[in-house]
Amino acid sequence: MDLKSILKTTPRYIKILADQWITTVKDFLQHFPRAYEDRSTIRNLNELIFNEKGITATKGKIVKKSIFMRGWRKIYTINFVDPIGNKWTITIFNSGFLASKIQEDKRYIIVGKPTMKFGKITFSHPDVVETEAPEETGTSEEELGTSEHVPIITAQVPNVYNTWRIFPIYSELMGISPGWFAQKMRKLIDRVDTIFSEYLPREFIEKFWLIGVQETIKEMHYPTSFEKQKQANLRIFFDRLLRIQLYSLINRNSYQLNKTNMEHETIDRNIVKEIIATLPFELTNAQKKVIKHITENLHEPKPMLRLLQGDVGSGKTIVAAISAYYTFKKYQGQSVFLAPLEVLAQQHYRTLAKLLLPLGLRIELLTGSITKSEKDKIKLDLAEGRIHVLIWTHAILQESVAFKQLQFVVIDEQHKFWVRQRAFFKRFWAPHILQMSATPIPRSMALAFFGEFDVSIIDELPIGRKPIITKIVSEKEYIKLKPRILDKINKGQKVFVVTPLIEESEKLEEVKAATTEFEEIKALYPELRWKIGLLHGKMRPKDKEEVMQDFKSWKICLLVSTTVIEVGIDIPEATIMVIKNAERFGLSQLHQLRGRIGRADVQSYCFLETKNKTGDIGKRLKAMEETNDGFKLAELDLQNRGAGEILGTMQSWESDIPLEILSDLKFLEKIQEGAKWLLEKYPKLEWLHELKKYLEEKMGDILA
Ligand code: ADP
Ligand code: MG
């Protein structure tokens, strides 16, 4: 039966529901309440608690009712007497349909938040439900009530669905009221058993202590207790995360079905030693450890899927470069470095060229800003294997390119990339993939969203780095920094001024903020004049590159920038950063930005400017003063602002998982274990089959 006839509602409502992807009874029943009210206890008038947050219900008989109009609002004043004889005047504000129906001499339950004003009890928009229930106490209504303790009545009243229980509160949906949902759900709830059936094996349900699907749906709408509702909720998130885990595993398995054409050979340590010998510094132990992980993976017949996390400045690029070199020396394999921004691609190009050209590798840069003939030449050389390492920007990934033997892909700043890129590379016989991220992701979250990756962490900064000193400053204090800033510049150091982040949709605003700041700084620092530069996302790649070049080469020593500098830019002489309106950023992002300085052995300073030094915002920012540990800050972000802060844009089916769950490592491990178990033990499960199909549709050719 279709939704319309089951709900007996108008085409308009059906359309509103359809806009929310609710088109079947199943969908409808999976539209869960946003909150619950405890209506399971009814209080007498003398027991009502005022100004409390929760909802209370009272019941009794209306002795007299009067209606006033105030503007277009109806106000009912009723003389009400409760079962033990307390009498009181109750004011009810415009409560729509039900309130207009209330009659004298009938019994009602009033559910809402009571307040006491001028000796009158007032309910704003309560539910008013008629009740035929007989009184449970022997006390007659005419007897005058005492204020002695009277037991709370919790009798069960059939056919009154919105009291005497925990009651669901749905979000209003384009004019569809919460009450409408509550009523319709109530009617459907008895049919849940015929609409839903369990899709997980019984053995699984028992193994993981879950409650069944049917019970889950019922308890979500009309919980029999808060405890049960919690269990139902857990089941729902368990399933959602299980899907993500399964998806990760299926994805991993399917990617790894592709054998790499590397033969089993012993790892050649000399190759690594060769390149390390050319470095001007000693690798950290953490870097060495990760290089070991990667070279081991390069020798396996399955393509590597590895997530490399390392705080800003921990030296991930060099690790990737050494791996690319190894791939070439050992297997003549080609590598690709993917960068999300052209500026970063340019920088990678320079770093890698400096390192790898002397060792005989050819490196090219393929970005949107080169000419067609240059591009064609690069493509030809790639196809014929004359280029060994290609630096590529995300923007042109869709172009047709052929490789002679692509074996290693580095995706820098992975949270800006997603599955589509991986699907793209699968076309090239599934090369090894190294995803790099400087946004430290708490372990629990890495497990939830990057379950298909093995994780390596660089948890050590190169020696000699001085921790950045961070200070929160007011606008005034920021202006007063001028002599200090000039002094540093005179000493050959460089300064970033970062302007506030503005919503994605308002890119132009962001540019405006940066441009304004640029003018202000020029006025504030007349002595620097042409040495002040401006960088923002709306500039042509060529101009951006020029500004970056100027900043590197000292033509510019103070750079005003939007967050485009966030990702990966490496300028060792930059030692001061001012972040304007710092309160607009999440801690992870501030940390990312701050990571642009403190990249050499000179003491660096980060100033967080905010008009709101005291209060909650200051308190949140304080963490920046206290720690340089990106993982710690990410944990704090996860607690304060949610997962989206850390992951950037996520797919909607992942974004509404509550924090308690996302930060619960044990729970997530359990789910991952469950996914593995299920795939191994029940690979033919129909639900899994459906899931695969669903994912296929969603992700295009990934699972092909
Ligand atoms: P990130 O991990 O943030 O991408 P980079 O790879 O850009 O960091 O490295 C930051 C800077 O540190 C670069 O200038 C790089 O040359 C330098 N570097 C990397 N490893 C070391 C090391 N072991 N000792 C000293 N400097 C290093
Ligand atoms: Mg980097």
Please specify the SSE layout and strand pairing.
Layout: H1 3-7, H2 11-19, H3 25-29, E1 35-38, E2 42-43, E3 56-70, E4 73-81, E5 87-93, H4 96-101, E6 107-112, E7 114-117, E8 120-124, E9 127-130, E10 166-169, H5 178-188, H6 192-195, H7 202-207, H8 213-221, H9 226-256, H10 269-276, H11 285-298, E11 305-310, H12 316-331, E12 334-339, H13 342-356, E13 363-366, H14 372-383, E14 389-393, E15 406-411, H15 419-426, E16 432-437, H16 443-449, E17 454-458, E18 469-473, H17 475-479, H18 482-490, E19 494-498, H19 507-524, E20 532-535, H20 541-552, E21 558-561, E22 574-579, H21 587-594, E23 605-609, H22 615-626, H23 630-641, H24 643-647, H25 652-655, H26 659-662, H27 665-681, H28 686-699
Parallel strand pairs: 2-3, 5-8, 11-16, 11-17, 12-14, 12-15, 13-14, 15-16, 18-23, 19-21, 19-22, 20-21, 22-23
Antiparallel strand pairs: 1-10, 3-4, 3-6, 4-5, 6-9, 7-8
The structure holds adenosine-5'-diphosphate and magnesium ion (MG).
Short description:
The protein is α/β, with parallel strands linked by helices and 704 residues long.
Descriptive report:
By secondary structure, the chain is α/β, with parallel strands linked by helices. Helix content is 41%, strand content 18%. Strands 2, 3, 4, 5, 6, 7, 8 and 9 form an eight-stranded mixed beta sheet that branches. Helix 11 packs parallel to helix 12. The longest helix has 31 residues. The protein is globular. The C terminus is likely disordered. The structure holds adenosine-5'-diphosphate and magnesium ion (MG). The site of magnesium ion (MG) has 5 residues, from helix 12.
